[in-house]
Design goal:
- It is a single chain.
- The protein has one domain.
- It is α+β, with helices and mostly antiparallel strands.
- The chain contains two helices and four strands; from the N terminus they run αββββα.
- It has a four-stranded antiparallel sheet with strand order 1-2-3-4.
- A hairpin with a 4-residue loop joins strand 2 and strand 3.
């Protein structure tokens, strides 16, 4: 589900993320917000009510078979910052 803040990001990112997850994916059926884009890896930072996710979009334009789009969940901002520090 797309939130209002997600609409501030390029519309293609929100549309693609809405089209990819299938049942069984951690974001399927959840309300989420894209808060950042991580380039050049085609990743987006997504928040839900309880978690932060780093999602690698596939740009297939269709529902993907889990575990795609690749999604890493973080339980805290500190955990997310630690991962990003080494990843980028």
């Amino acid at each position: 589900m797309i939130s209002a803040l997600s609409l501030l990001m390029p519309i293609g990112l929100a549309r693609e993320l809405a089209s990819e997850p299938k049942p069984g994916h951690p974001l399927f059926g959840q309300a989420w917000t894209i808060v950042a884009r991580a380039r050049p890896r085609d990743e987006v930072v997504v928040t839900t009510d309880s978690d932060v996710y780093l999602v690698h979009l596939t740009w297939a334009g269709v529902r993907e078979q889990p575990p795609w789009p690749s999604t890493t969940a973080f339980k805290s901002a500190a955990e997310f910052e630690e991962e990003i520090r080494y990843r980028y």
